[in-house]
Specification:
This protein is mainly alpha-helical and 499 residues long. It contains 21 helices and 2 strands. Belongs to the CPA3 antiporters (TC 2.A.63) subunit D family.
């Protein structure tokens, strides 16, 4: 094994080792969870080492298997994949820390299976992030769908099983119906599936078939949750909150928008994308999804459901940036992958903490809760600011980059959509912490009369609370130090030396 391939293989194999050790130590919860956290930190250190090598101009690559000529399982480090890998590996140990408090506090069953499947999902994410070709990306994209299914159905109830069926049928169905044929057709006409800056399609390939191919790729990557293939995301909210965090911030939806960006940049090519008439329609569809999902979110009283539709809307931001078919749009989208991940995981952590500590899941029940759970509700406020795109949080920069990209492209309608969407973000997120801290005199008097004010509600268990503090502080840190996400986003367009 060459030194160039060792780090990549190590990053993919480490979570699999974690899954094995988790299964072996399942009877000893403290040891099992220590294994998850320690290996998670080692994975983060590995990806930081890969980042240092990338900064130094070293071409890191790995080759596993040749299937057919031009068809292989191989891996290579480039900026977009490295950004995704760093985001996922940064949030994995924090999510495990949170899960310790949540899963124990909520007395969840099958915790060993939960941690093992979580680790396998992270391994699939690492393989997706470093995939050197469309075939490798497709294989591990499917692995990710399969290994997260037990997490979605974790509760074992009929509702959980139904949510899992919707989850798997949409993700696998779109992959088989759209993604797989698009990949095969690309291989036939191009003779390769290897990612290449500027695209791999032959120059003579154009016309309606090119538009059809683009549509197949876009709708085949249903993890990006573009309407009308978004229903799996709200359906999957039956899962425990750490799984929701995995779906929304660490792995699944980010694998979707990441795959979409990879295909548009390295298979289609931005120059070719600008010439396809369908691109404008997909841009408008993404913009419509941003607004529609925000409007649906406003009507949800269940906190996790509101956050789920918020994610659908925020993913639309990333898709919009991609369909602008400009470098500035892609840079804004890539930066938003990181900023949204940290902000949204904070919100989901807070939602789970509220459920564990107060057994409340409906927003209408959370008025006045800030006095009993001040740390959680302050963290929710910080996470909400990041999703809205307000200082001093990291979401400010990605929203600004996307707005600038719409102006550079002369897409004024998209600029208006982003601004209106941000106002809608304010309308459905900020009232939650504000009413928690300032419930109003009428509410306090009614509480006092009914005696409910005496009910003691404390913060969530310490591990979950520590995770919430870490991610909320990270939202603020990314405002002052956004350098690494932005460096990697801009680095997408610097050709990586081929081995």
């Amino acid at each position: 094994m060459s030194s160039e391939s060792m780090l990549i293989n190590f990053a993919i194999a480490l979570p699999l080792l974690a899954a094995l050790l988790i299964s072996v130590t399942g009877r000893f919860p403290n040891l099992r969870e220590a294994v998850s956290i320690v290996i998670g930190l080692v994975l983060l250190a590995t990806n930081i080492a890969i980042y240092k090598q990338w900064q130094g101009g070293v071409a890191l690559h790995g080759h596993w298997l040749d299937i057919l000529p031009g068809l292989s399982l191989s891996f290579r480090v480039e900026a977009l994949g490295l950004l995704f890998a760093l985001v996922a590996s940064s949030l994995w140990p924090v999510t495990v820390l949170y899960a310790i408090g949540y899963m124990r506090g909520h007395d969840e069953k099958n915790q060993t299976r939960f941690y093992a499947c979580f680790a396998i999902a992270i391994s699939a994410v690492m393989a997706i992030a470093y995939a050197d070709n469309l075939f490798a990306l497709f294989v591990f994209y499917e692995v990710l769908s399969l290994c997260t299914y037990p997490l979605v159905t974790h509760a074992g109830t009929e509702k959980a099983k139904q949510g899992g069926r919707v989850y798997l049928s949409i993700l696998m169905g779109t992959s088989i119906a759209f993604f797989l044929p698009a990949m095969i057709f690309t291989w036939v006409i191009s003779g390769t599936l290897e990612f290449r800056l500027g695209g791999i399609l032959p120059d003579e390939f154009s016309g309606p078939l090119l538009s059809i191919l683009l549509a197949f790729f876009v709708f085949g990557v249903a993890k990006a949750a573009m309407m009308p293939f978004h229903r799996w995301l709200p359906a999957a909210m039956v899962a425990p909150t750490p799984v929701s965090a995995l779906l929304h911030a660490v792995a699944v939806v980010k694998a979707g928008v990441f795959s979409l960006l990879k295909i548009l940049i390295f298979v289609i090519g931005l120059d070719r994308l600008q010439e396809i008439p369908l691109t404008d329609y997909l841009l408008y569809l993404a913009g419509a999804g941003v607004l529609l999902a925000s409007l649906v979110a406003m009507r949800q009283d269940n906190l996790k459901a509101r956050l789920a539709y918020s994610t659908v809307s925020q993913l639309g931001y990333i898709s919009m940036g991609a369909f602008l078919a400009t470098q500035s749009g892609v840079i804004g989208s890539a930066t938003h992958i990181a900023m949204h991940a940290v902000g949204k995981i904070t919100l989901f952590f807070c939602a789970g903490a509220i459920l564990v500590a107060s057994h409340k899941s409906e927003i209408s029940q959370m008025r006045g809760l800030g006095r009993q759970m001040p740390i959680t509700m302050v963290a929710f406020f910080i996470g909400a600011l990041s999703i809205i795109g307000l200082p001093p949080t990291g979401g400010t920069w990605s929203k600004w980059l996307l707005l600038s990209a719409t102006m550079d492209a002369g897409q004024w309608a998209m600029m208006v959509i982003l601004l209106v969407s941000s106002l809608l973000n304010i309308a459905y997120l900020l009232p939650i912490p504000l009413r928690a801290f300032f419930p109003g005199e009428k509410f306090l008097k009614e509480q006092s009369k009914s005696g409910t004010a005496a009910v003691a509600i404390k913060e969530a268990p310490l591990p979950a609370l520590l995770a919430i503090i870490i991610t909320s502080l990270a939202c603020i840190a990314l405002f002052f130090w956004p350098d690494i996400p932005y460096e990697l986003a801009t680095g997408i367009f610097n050709e990586v030396p081929m081995p």
